[in-house]
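Supplementary Note 3. Input sequence used for the single-chain structure prediction.
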Amino acid sequence: MGLARMLAGALRAALTPLIRRWTRTRLIEPAPTALPLEPTLPVLYVLSRPALSDTLLLETLARTHGLPGASGRRRTGSVTVPACLALPAPGRRLRRRGRRPTAPFQPLIEQYRRDPAHDVQLVPVSVFWGRAPGKRFGVWHLLAADSWRLTGRLRRLLSVAVNGRDVEVQFGAPLRLSELDDDRDPALTNRKVARLLRGHFRRTRTRVLGPDLSHRRTLIDGVVASAEVQRAIGEVAAAEKATRPRIARRARRYGREIASDMTYPVMRFMAGALRRLWNRLYDGVEVRGLSRVKALAGEHALVYVPCHRSHIDYLLLSYVLYREGLMPPHIAAGRNLDMPLIGPLLRRGGAFFMRRSFRDNRLYAAVFNEYLHRLLSRGHPLEYFMEGGRSRSGRLLPARPGMLAMTLRSFLRSRREGGRDVLFVPVYLGYERILENASYQREMRGAEKRRESPLALAGVTRRLRQPHGRVDVNVGEPLSLSAFLDAQVPGWRQAPDAPRPAWLNRIVPALGETLSRRINAAAALNPVNLVALVLLATPHRAIEVGLLTQQLALLVALQRRLPGGRDASLPTGTPEAWIEQVATLGMIDRHPHPLGDIIVADERQAGLLGWYRNNVLHLFALAGLTAFAFRHQAAHRLDDLAALLGPGWPILARELSIEPAPALRDDLAAMLEALGEEGLLEREGEGWRRPRESLAAGEQLDMLGALMQPSLERGYLLLSVLLSEPSGHFTAEALTERSRLLAERLALLSGRDAPEFFDARLFAGLVESLTACGWLAADDGRLTFDEALREAARESRALFDPALRHRLQLVSRRGEE
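The predicted structure, written as discrete structure tokens, is reproduced below.
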């Protein structure tokens, strides 16, 4: 035994400097300095399995980062144990027949029973040499990386050689022996501690590697053989008078068209390529809020639901998750991206492709639903864009029901099979400059959307040398699907199983609205959208630098005091630096002048800035609405103001996907106080009024109110059209089109070059909001209303000054002639 120990010591001494020089730790989480260690208690590290490479790496990290040593042995009382322990590899037996390996904690437990002063801290440590999900990858499966399969010595040696520059280390929260002891037999407590640690390691591996991946062909065969798809095959065969084998071959073809083929070499290649791309394209990628997802990832099936701003979204989120130690998701992509060269690369990076519509294709729908269900039920993380397409206006588009409904049905089916909960993860992606700037402007002005092609995407490379600023990836508040159903459908757990419960059509839109609000609540303010908010609120898209600086500081101060979203983020730096950044990106021009420089945006720049303003306009909805109320009427009492704004506030909140205040009066009181603190309002008796002396403060108040003016004008025009005819005259489509034409006319007459002002989707959303809030009802396709709507519209006109009201009425009346 002594000779063996000497040889082992010599081997460790030889290998330790090799490990130190060869390995590079890409990610350590949490940071070693953030570990909540009790300094008075001894620390023992616990690995998930015996591995000399892991032990030596941990010893090196402990020395490098000032952690308690991980080498040698620790003496606690009369017990001596290694400083770095390992759980025994499952399924292995010692040479002596009948003996099973046991976890090494029993001597520590027995000593703690004898003397509670000898408590210890157990720190679980997971080491990943590369990150390949469990799948057969040929030679890469032998060489490349950690997977769910336990590795032998030769394979581990090769893995260390290949992946020494791509190591991740995950520290778990320290466990104190005193917290784990339950006064049972020490052997039972020993097994309990080992079971808890194995559960922790399993959750960590699930979070980092994802669940085991089946071979793509096997997965497709399983989808086609499922009961749901077989039923669809029978129905289609009967309807088309075709043989079942022929329809089954079609189903298998659909499966190949849909299924991803996530491949580790491609994932690793893309991680390196994307790292270089982001470093070339952007000044940095800031990630916030991901820690709470990591805490829940091991126990839930994750569904990421980001806003859709750019084609870069697909790549950006996968890269961020990979970099931050989470498994990249399977991504639902439009079939238009399954093009030569690009499609196979995306498919091997985790994309699965779907047709825009398959409502009339029973077989395709069955195959897609079954494929999605198998991904979710096995715990694979998913990603899809609820909006269905990229936002050309910069606003968050209403959620489409398709993928949400399929996810919900899959969850209900998994519940019957004992599956895990689904956790929706809303993600806000904020850019200072997107690659599609020019194409979005063309499409908003009526040009047809250009079809994606490899040549078109290759043309984007010409813009890679241009500055694009920074990117923000903000993770909003995750939503547990089971908790959401508990709140919305009490008793759903006890309801009889049904593939399409009666409440499904009601819940899917509510789920989409909730997730949209959580995405918007995580919006990121950056220099571009802040400057856009101010500059586009001026009459001629021109402003003095001094006034712009003051207004930028005001907007940030209001958000810091009363955030428009619970997870919203603010930029760092100063207003002067923000202005310089926007000028560097080519979004504004700075004109020197002896009396003070002037910031100007030409027609093209204003069109671009409108997109970025709309990204974050919702954060200032209440501030802008409150300020607009003082545009015409100089003074308001709180109760009068709440009565004036109350009817329209839920409609505006729904349009902007924000949470309507349950008590508007309280929020208004806080907003009035904030505006007063900033010098934009003055107290007068029991109310508030515009500042009498300060013209600058009045100008700032007007610019703040101008943020909501376009939304209020659209509402005014729509109600004018609706109330010009008796109840039941208009259909939703006719009212939308008529209102859109009037808005287009108003934009032309007022010189407002903003195509999104008369976007038909905004007017369609207004009609839906009026219906959802109870102001309108649909009777045989016709919109009906009562006298309450006329009275509310009449009272809300007090918001508009006589000149503006006259202009809107004039446009409405001439449009009716």
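Residues 92-98, 133-144 have pLDDT under 50 and may be disordered. Residues 186-209 form the longest helix (24 residues).
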